[in-house]
Amino acid sequence: MCRLLHLFSLALVLTPAPLLALEFNMPSGVTDTSQSVFNLHMTIFYICLAIAVVVFGVMFWSIFHHRRSRGAKAAQFHGSVVVEIIWTIIPFLILVAIAIPATTTLSDMYDASESDVDIQVTGHQWKWHYKYIGEDVDFFSILNTSREEIENRKKKNPNYLLEVDNALVVPTNKKIRFLFTSNDVIHAWWVPDLAIKKDAIPGFINESWTRIKEPGLYRGQCAELCGKHHAFMPIEVKAVPEASYLAWLEDQKAAKLAEAASAEQDWSMDQLMTAGATVYEKNCAVCHQADGSGVAGAFPALNGSAIVQGDKAGHLDIVVNGKLAKGMPAFGEQLSAVDIAAVITYERNSWDNQTGDHVSPAEVQTLMDKQ
Amino acid sequence: MSAHAETAHHGPASGISRWILTTNHKDIGTMYLVFSLLMLFVGGSMAFVIRAELFQPGLQMVMPEFFNQMTTMHGLIMVFGAVMPAFVGLANWQIPLMIGAPDMALPRLNNLSFWILPFAFAMLLSTLLMPGGAPDFGWTFYAPLSTTYAPPSVTFFIFAIHMMGISSILGAINVVVTIFNMRAPGMKLMDMPLFVWTWLITAFLLIAVMPVLAAVVTMMLMDVHFGTSFFNAAGGGDPVLFQHVFWFFAHPEVYIMVLPAFGVISQIVPTFARKPLFGYHSMVYATAAIAVMSFIVWAHHMFTVGMPLAGELFFMYTTMLIAVPTGVKVFNWISTMFRGSMTFETPMLFAIAFIVLFTIGGLSGLMLAIAPADFQYHDTYFVVAHFHYVLVPGSVFGIIAGVYYWLPKWCGKMYDEKLGQWHFWLSFIGVNLTFFPMHFVGLAGMPRRIPDYALQFADFNMITSIGAFLFGTTQLLFVYILIKTVRSGKPAEQLPWDGAQGLEWSVPTPAPYHTFSTPPVVGDK
Amino acid sequence: MKRWLNPTTPGGLIAIVVLMFGFGFMLVPLYDVFCEVTGLNGKTGGPYQGAASQTEAVDERQVTVQFVANRNANLPWEFAPEQEEIKLQIGERKQTAFYVSNTYDHAVVAQAIPSVSPAQAADYLNKVECFCFQQQPLQAGEQKGFPLVFFLDPDLPEEITKLTLSYTLFDISDRAAAEGY
Q1: Where in chain A are all domains bearing CATH 1.10.287?
Q2: Tens digit of pLDDT for each residue in B164-184?
Q3: Read out DSSP for A291-349?
């Protein structure tokens, strides 16, 4: 049995080798901060490992040598002030040695100097909203993995659960300041490669900053339990050189104008149904289910619903303004007029709902403008 | 010292009323232990659901909302239903025996504090059947997820917590009063066995922090039903305040769950090393130091919540300091083994595993204390690995070790040593297989409390699930060993362990229904 | 020692329990004091009480103040600052506004909750006039501009060159009704 214990201690000592491979360990990341956090992590890890080797070494040595089966006779000493003082002071000194670099790293993270880009990050159940302050660009970022993959009906792609529709685009080598807040419950925005994890708290703002050194796509997830789809609100940060970033910003502004213009156009029933299916899958299926059957006791069925089959104004009102007490968000602030018109049309003409009517983006726009 | 053998004027009452009306510390201790074993399996079956869902990526077994109910209930039941009552059970059996008292000081209160528990847990478990489901906001129940956004069953959850709190407080009052007033003549505080010391300190922690838990759930209740806004930003409250008050309770709570295990280990290691405990005084002071410091470290659970730099540094430094007294305890245990004459029966095996694996949990705790690194560790499986290392091979192994150690005295029968060794090795392998890979997935970026995960975490999660199934089913062997011992174990000797010291071994085997009706004389060395 | 204070008797221990239960509630005001002292959470204080005559810049330092309007799930109205950013000098008094419109078909009493980041700047942002000091009743469809007058305290730490003031609107109609608004 003792041999087994020995083997286990040996296994413990040998683990750091695979620990260095990426998927076993913390990423060292792409910012100065993340790299100093990584170094700090490895330093403490090796110190802990050294402590463990010494402590367990003594222990297993005495387990081996001071066994009765080897004829060991018990000594009767039961204390030594000198020894006890030594093993109080030595750990204290080790702790001081760890505390110094930890304090330096932490102070760097609190640097309040001028930033180049300010982005407001708002957690929603269960998606992220990004707003570029002073730029009039803002959008939602929603999980892009299909229900089929989650429900094991389709092969999972390599970025399963870590992919979104609209990534957060940021410039490299610029100081980016993030402001975190939440629309409902507490979320936490976490991107390991940037070593940022900050809680997004309703009613309050928090901040953090980063300066990304290398272009690339960095993925993360919500880290604070925020309800049933906590596992399904990932983060994608796309770092690009400044010129591409500026071009992207211009594209976003142009797209926003184009979208407003498209609300003025006439949309055919088919166009609305196709667009509506996508919007429904991304925003509604989470609760009301893909087949509109809902979840008994929690989320009402849309299939056969009186509101959906009833008059358009009532349907439009609940989608635009929501019903907080029942957990229905107000999509008026989240979706464009086109998306709302499409999804309402889709709901009114899917499954057993065959009202045959459709809602045009212009109607929605009129209602939203009136408000 | 053997005069008390004849003092059993009357035995237990017969039938079910024995258990309902009993005021006997041994009966109540047994009920606590059986109850906690039952809860270990209830909480364990929830862990089984969690690990089955996480066996592979994708949603297979349960819906995410039910998964959240499982993680929440698993945590609550293991903390308040399995670990804490088990320690109260050990305290009930052992404290009177170890200090030479005939019973607990407040026997009727003792009966009450046990019988609150089945009702509290029946209420908590009944929420699983309610519309909207059981609590699904994690065992830390952060507002506003647990207030504005909670399922209707939150009210029952709050009442259940209140009842568990009252039970713990009454139990703790009983322990303190017993220890201060019922010690055998001549036994000074510094003569008490370490298990009694650690429980005395634990009891004071319970009395100090369980009311704070009661206060925080009362505030929740008022926010949910009476329109106050303690934790609601809309009315000028603050959700972060909830976390501060909660962790002000919950960090000492963490030590409540492990200090009595320190006590058990400090009894077992000297027995099987046949050598006195090294540094008795420093053990007592270290325990007290850990308890006092547990009140000034709470915000290390909240490093990512957005504190000023000075706050982060303060909580980082105080947390690191706790490593010093904890280290003292580990060094003392090892020095007790050093130059002893050791044998490795089941209690000692569990005790050694406790020391090794608790130390691993302690070292990962030290890593978590480093605030900048904690930004990466926080709310990941690294944290899950850390606290399971201190709670499962920590608290739970401590309890199991204590049960094997004292069982011969309690029931007069010896457990099957061979099966005990099997139980140990399967548990040891299972526990490490379950929780060690969690360090890796946590560092690699897997958040906790998720029912589905990205593909790079799949291999380790499968290993973890296999380990969990092994560890869980192994505990059925424990139940079998216990039943076999009580039914058909070989009669135990008066002193089952040749190195054991202390008053509890001076009573006959099995311990009679009433012991120490005449106080023993202590201090005649 | 009086019997009820003795922590070795049931009475004394119950006294501790009662005290600690009270202490749990005491943590609420204690926390507010703590927040005010350390600037934890970026909570700002009430109306500025100092010398009201101060309106001129007292320092060459330029600081950027950003304004953020959050829409909570609780009240998803249109809500936006007049300007997203203002550059000003220390001590200089500035007026700006937030625009809000009640998109509901019924009257609502709203309350704006302020928060400042970085949190340690909260103590140095002095609000002379703010819509967050009062509950704000809005009729169905009503649109309103909320004024805000503020200046930065000369004691603002040197390293802070940019700070953000955020407001989140909440629906407190129920509570306002209970208070007899």
Answers
A1: 2-71+78-109
A2: 999 999 999 999 999 999 999
A3: TS--BTTTB---TT-HHHHS-HHHHHHHHHH-BGGGTB--GGGTS-HHHHHHHHHHHHT
